[in-house]
Each structure stands twice: as C-alpha cells, then as structure tokens.
Amino acid sequence: MHSQSVGTNLEDEAPDSDTNVYRGEDEDEDENVFGYPDSSSQPNLFARAIQLATHISPSTPLPLRTQCTDTTAFQLNFHPSIPFMTVDEVASTFKLPDLRPAIADYIRRAQDLHSPIFKIGQRRSSPLGAELAFTHLRVWYSVRMQMRTSDVEGMTDPQRVCAAPPSDDWPFGRYDTVLISNGTEPGPGLGGMIYLLFYHQVS
Amino acid sequence: MTPFQGYDIAQIRLIFHPVWPTDINLVYAERFEIVPQAVSCGSALRGACPDPVTGLYVMKRSTRANGSRLGDIIPLLQARIPASVVPWYGVRADPKLTSRNSLEYSTEFHLNSFFDKELYYFMSQNNL
Question: Is residue B43 part of a domain?
C-alpha cells in the first residue's frame, strides 16, 4: 500500500502571493516552544494541504508550504529562514561537509534510477565537488508536523521540529529527531513509499 | 544492528528546497541505530530489543567507514512523527552535558518512546 502525497506543482516560486495561500504572516507564533498551542483552535494542516494542492493557480507560491501524506502534515513558513544561499555556504553554515555530494546522489537516484525509495545510509558515490543543476538553496530552520491519531481527537496539535544552525543560544545548533520512513515499512494504512521525483531532467 | 523495520530514527540537520523547479522539500537527515541489548534481564543473549530494565531502545549514531556520521537527503514527506532521543548516561552522567549539547557530546541515547502518547502509539501499532 502506497501513500499518496498531496502537493504537486509545476513551476517554481511565482511572484507575489495568493491571499488564499499566504495570509500575510508566518504562522509560527501560535505555539510555545514545546509545540502545544492553545487547544481552543486546533489548526488542521491536512485540510489545508489538500485545499492548497487542489487549488493551484499561476499565482500560487511554490513549492507548496503545506503538504501532507496519509499520516503526517507538514507546514513550512512562507518565508524561508534563509531565502537564497549557495550550496557550499549552506554546507559550511550547517557543518555538513558532504552536503553537495549527498544532494548529487539524491538527484541521481531520483532521476537516473527513478528510484521511489530514499533511505539514509546509501553509498556516497558523488565526489565532493559534484556538479549540481542549481547553485542555491532556500532553507527553513523549522517545520511544523501534525500527525493523524487513532483516537477521537483525530489529529495531534502541530509540533515544531527544528533544524537550526549554531547560534549564541544553541552553540551546537538545534537539530531535532524524528521517526522517518525508509521506504520499506510493512502493512497498510501507515503509508509506504512516496512517489515523488524531480521531474525536470538535467539537459 | 538493523534499524526498525521500515523506519529510521534520524536527526534532521537541514530543511531545504533547491532554487530550481521542483516541488519537493528535502531534508538532510543523520541516522541512529539500535545498540543490541540483553533479550531479558540477566540474559547473555543480545538482540535488537529494548533495554529490559527501562523498556527503551538504546541508540547510537550510525557512521560511515571513515567515521563520519551517516547522513543522506530524504524528502521531508517521508518523516512520520517527532521522536524524542535523550542521552543515556550509563553509570555516571558527564557533568558537561546540558539540554543544548547532549546530542553532540553523548555517544549512546535512549529513544524515549514514553515521551508522548503519539510516539508511544505509533511505535506500538507498528510493532517497533
């Protein structure tokens, strides 16, 4: 059983915003650091992800900031924490010396092998200076995750998961941990492989 | 030691999107692996099971042959649920440890499946 992921779009970021999509503020101030917002108005990121994915217009800012799978919905701030930074600068800021070859390996697997399975721990086959089809990344320091539950509440409150580089407060950076699919989980219902590929060929 | 069937515990090191026409948000994630524990209290037999005393899995960072941490690029949408990983102090806690450096300085961790009920249910339902 394969989970369908919602959120498809065909072009890169469109200028300016659809008010439906971007409501003029980033939605990261409505919860405390432990991720438990005021329960009086629980957001439903799943509904929002589906609404966004099914109403894409030429003015929709892409990539979609709210996306979901069967089990989990994700929301990124409209404004990236770092809107435009070279791959090598990001690697240095986040102390990830093999970022460039890791991205090259990912793209090779996605494009050349048409592999739907992405798994941590593959052999690193691209060289340190691997060429990429793009030069810059946009980076977010956190993502909000909301999970479906089997109890009556239906879904959890969104929780913030951080991946922030070293700062005065967090000299080693703040990098949270998650349980992540490696594409081989058994059984129905909880989502299997996600068919998401880079669809642009490097020409 | 083999990770959980179908899932990894991973630290998210970067959330990003290439400035390029693609709709996929990506993460750079570093994996943890299970440290085999005694299958029952006092047993010499070890397996990929939780510590029989605490009921918690003991984890360590996975590394490549050259000693660097094992990380790769994965679509953000493959993440399922936040998972609390806390240092496992062993006999004596290192006094240098604080909440802000413990994931860096520690070598062994507990996967705290009792951190909240969602993680507990998720792991129970998936026989992890």
Answer: yes
Number of structural domains chain B divides into: 1
> What are the Cα distances from residue A189, in Å, to A69, A128, A145, B75?
11, 39, 18, 20
Containing structural domain, residue B20 = 9-125
If you average pLDDT over residues A178-201, what whole number do you get? 51
Enter the pTM of the model: 0.82
CB contact under 8 A, A190 and B104: no
Does residue A158 register a pLDDT over 70?
A: yes
For residue B50, the distance in angstroms to the closest alpha carbon of chain A comes to 16
Which of B15, B62, B123 is opposite residue A139, by nearest beta carbon?
Answer: B15
Q: Is residue B4 part of a domain?
A: no
A163/B14 Cβ within 8 A: yes
- Kindly write down the DSSP assignment for every residue of B73-104, as one continuous string: EEEGGGEEEE--EEE--TTS--TT--TTTHHH
> Are residues B81 and A178, on separate chains, in Cβ contact within 8 Å?
yes
pLDDT reported for residue A115: 66
Q: What part of B 4-33 touches A (C-beta under 8 Å)? A: 4-32
Tell me which residues of chain B, numbers 61 to 90, contact chain A at a CB-CB cutoff of 8 Å.
62, 64, 68, 70-85
Question: Do B21 and A181 make contact, defined as CB atoms within 8 angstroms?
Answer: no
Cα–Cα distance, B64 to B33 (Å, whole number): 12
Average the pLDDT over each of A84-98, A112-126, B4-18 and give the range with the smallest value.
Answer: A112-126
Distance separating alpha carbons of residues A113 and A131, to the nearest angstrom: 18
CB < 8 Å & 24+ apart, contacts of A125-128: A125/A101, A126/A100, A126/A101, A126/A102, A127/A101, A128/A97, A128/A98, A128/A100, A128/A101
Residue B87 domain flag: yes
